[in-house]
Amino acid sequence: MLETLRTSLASVFGDNRRRIIFLLIVQGVIFTGLWFVEVNYGFRGKDQIGLFRYGNDTHSYLDPIENLLDYGVYGTDPTKPFAFRMPGMLLPYGSFYVLFGREIAVHAYAIISVLMLIIGSSLVSGNLYRLYGLGPPLVFLSGFILYPQIYSYAFYGMPETLSAGLILILVYLFSEDEFRSKRLVLAGAIIAQLILLKPIFIVVTPVLGLYIFFRNYKTDQIILRALRSMFLLALIPVIVMGVWNVRNYATFNNVILLTTTLDMHGADNAFRSWCRITGQEYQAFNGKDARAWFVDPANNKYNRTFAESNPFPDFIFTDYYNLDSLRSIRADWYRLASMEDSEERTRLDQQIEQRFRKFSNSFRSENTFHFVVTSRLVHLKNFLFIKDSFSPFAQQGIQWTLVRGIYFLQYYYVLVLFLIGLFLAIISWHKLDAMIKLSILMTLFYILGHLIMGRIENRYIIPMLPLLCIIMSQIFIGFDLAKSRQPPVIS
After folding, report:
1. Positive or negative, the Cα torsion across 411, 412, 414, 415?
2. What is the full DSSP assignment across 335-401?
3. Helix, strand, or coil here: 53?
4. Phi, psi of 80 (to 5 degrees)
5. CB atoms within 10 A of CB 241
6. Distance between CA atoms of 197 and 200, rounded to whole angstroms?
């Protein structure tokens, strides 16, 4: 029976058409099942249109596209342009919005997102099968096909699911032995779209450029071919970024390369910046982080016992500020929350912002080692080793506890096997296939970018989750369980 199953799966993965139909059915069933369950029983959705629910950040992604197409102004307010989000939803959402209106567009975006994921997983799993046999593609698919979070963001209008699918397609395009012009231009278009969806992806572009260069550059005679390949790859991203920057300069009379996310003002943004610099969390998902300690007593995250404690590690304090300083600024923040809009409130907000900025500057200058090393390691721990399932179900009862446990365990299934696969890959680096090498480099640079900026919300790992699953497949390869031919050596 097992041999029959193995033979059947081999026939599926060995045939492009059968593989795409198989994944379309499997992932389609999972996607629609999760959509039904989360929309009907989850708490993430705010507003609803048909079967589509708006998540917490959805309006900030979709509303600017609608305002741009309806009023010619890119911003959440049709009278105030902004650069907080890049226009990554213009093509996958805006094109349907123009043709069919909002209701069809939001549903079309959800379906397009998961279709990109299915196409990407089919291409990559087919590659893994051709190189290594049946084991690695099954390990790869087991990781993200069964992980609910990767699908959920599609029907909440977020960019994570679409980004994950595009990244898989990109890795597939880069894994081929020859880089044809059309393939490079297509890869460049995908890179541009990824940067528009997730600006953090800019940190991965040097890896891709150098990868293309060294895969082409074999002798002095063909250095021009390597440079030509890099030019074709960069062509569309440079044009798209150029248009975005011209728009920003013309609109704001200021240079804004990507977004204004890291250059925002106000007390709350200064607090977030202080958290990023010192290694603290500010999402309050588990109710025991810096946000929960600073939160106003009227907030449902407030816990008096926790608020009266000292949850901060000693290394974050300097000669300039201590725990009493944090209690003082917290008291001012409480007062700010209770004030009506006025000049006095604006002044207090600016004072709190300035104090947090000074706290951050003193930490960077006095505790340089902790800023460069310790706080980044804390961010790494909090980024990867989550304490919450992040499922959308808060109901009581054993069935919901079980569901939350499944979300939690499936994430750690991916993470643990990824770490094992990464270790095995590193110790056998010279034997690795190009696709696995590229997946490792992209993943490490992506994670490093988040650590440097201190942006560690767990959903930010979702776009790279399929690459973690590619690296997971190294478990099968690393233990020499694959029966097919050896992969080509890429030095």
Report:
1. positive
2. HHHTPPSSHHHHHHHHHHHHHHHHHHHHHHHH-HHIIIIIHHHHHHHHHHS-SS---S----SHHHH
3. strand
4. -135, 105
5. 18
6. 9
Cβ(477)–Cβ(127) below 8 Å: no
pLDDT, one tens digit per residue, over 147-177 is 878 888 888 889 999 999 999 999 999 887 6
Give residue 216's pLDDT band: very low, low, confident or very high (50, 70, 90). low
Mean pLDDT in residue range 318-334: 92
143 pLDDT higher than 70: yes
Q: What is the pLDDT of residues 251-272, one digit of tens each?
A: 999 888 888 887 788 888 999 9
Check if the beta carbon of residue 383 is closer than 8 Å to that of residue 447. yes
**Is pLDDT at 2 greater than 60 in this prediction?**
no
Fill in the amino acid letter for 340. Answer: E
CB 457 within 8 A of CB 158: no
Q: What one-character-per-residue DSSP string does 227-272 give?
A: HHHHHHHHHHHHHHHHHHHHHHHHHHSS--SS-SGGG--SHHHHHH
DSSP 83: -
Q: Which of helix, strand or coil describes residue 80? A: strand
Structure tokens belonging to residue 481: 């369980």
113 touches 128 (CB < 8 A): no
CB 330 within 8 A of CB 278: no
For residue 289, CA distances in Å to 225, 311, 355, 398, 451 come to: 52, 8, 20, 27, 17
Task: Indicate the average pLDDT of the chain.
Answer: 86
Give 478 or 486, the one with higher predicted confidence: 478
Which is nearest to 120 in space by CA: 182, 194, 32?
A: 194
Q: 48 - beta bridge partners?
A: 53
What backbone phi and psi angles, to 5 degrees, belong to 52?
Answer: -95, 135
- For the entire predicted model, the pTM comes to 0.89
Say whether 490 sits in a helix, a strand or coil: coil
| Rounded Cα distance, 260 and 9, in Å | 48
Instruction: Report the pLDDT value the prediction gives residue 491, as an integer from 0 to 100.
Output: 36
**Burial class for 144, CB neighbours closer than 10 Å (0-12, 13-18, 19+):** buried
> Rounded CA gap, 307 and 310, in Å?
8
Residue 250: CB atoms within 10 Å: 8
- Kindly give the pairing relationship between strand 48-49 and strand 52-53: antiparallel
Q: What is the DSSP string of 311-328?
A: -S-GGG--SS--HHHHHH
For 449-459, how does the pLDDT look when each residue is reduced to its tens digit (9 = 90+)? Answer: 999 988 888 88
